[in-house]
Amino acid sequence: MTGEDAVPLCLGEVCITCSDSAVAVRVRELLPGGLAMVDTEAGPEEVSVALVDARPGDLVLVHAKEAIAIVEAGA
Description:
This protein is an all-beta fold. Helices cover 0% and strands 49% of the residues. It has strands at residues 10-11, 14-15, 23-31, 35-40, 43-48, 59-63, 66-72.
């Protein structure tokens, strides 16, 4: 990407810059240090929730082990 008019090209569910996609996962529990345990298809996994105000039960969008948005508030 060069020039002042250059804009990253991200189409569909995959980012061109990193060839990765975000995944919606459910927060199981909050951990110290801005981390959370979430339920993934592969089982429990630790991710950062430092950028969002997530709570247990929330469905969050995670990219590169970082929650980037709350998709659905938990019950």
